């Protein structure tokens, strides 16, 4: 039984390696994916999934609308002139939202060791808010950056 499980694990590992090589080969050939890889927290899997699922980013009017499509914007409970923001809506694409949040978590962790403008901004936000709130805020920011890169065809400039 253990030998059978080991053989199955070895086979699955080989399949995973082969699929990873295929994804990396596709990444090298797509200019849009290459542009997204410049964003911290976006890797080859995230970038290829975003390009494949979103297609033409011009279908969204703004970065906020794109972030809302992914379910990364807070819900609003407004009444009588008071605006209250709640948790994220989670109404969009769960796969892309999960990938962006995991990537943002990596970016938040990496920012603790860096001193560039974006990292300092993340550190300041993390000092004021919970780590999970900071992570979602970074994912939201990354979604807006992704929209700008895909819709305008520009390269990423890390100026925060």
Which key terms come to mind for this protein?
160 residues, mainly alpha, two-stranded antiparallel ribbon, 65% helix, globular, Transposase_20, DNA binding, Transpos_IS110
Question: What can you tell me about this protein's structure?
Answer:
Strand 1 (74-76) and strand 2 form a beta hairpin. By secondary structure, this protein is mostly helical. The mean pLDDT is 88. The protein is built from seven helices and two strands, in the order ααααββααα. It has one domain (32-152). It has a two-stranded antiparallel ribbon. The longest helix has 28 residues, at 2-29. It is globular, with a radius of gyration of 18 Å. 65% of the residues lie in helices and 4% in strands. It has helices at 2-29, 31-36, 44-54, 63-69, 94-111, 117-128, 131-152, and strands at 74-76, 85-88.
Mind sketching the topology for me?
Elements: H1 2-29, H2 31-36, H3 44-54, H4 63-69, E1 74-76, E2 85-88, H5 94-111, H6 117-128, H7 131-152
Antiparallel strand pairs: 1-2
Helix pairs in contact: 1-3, 3-5, 4-7, 5-6, 5-7
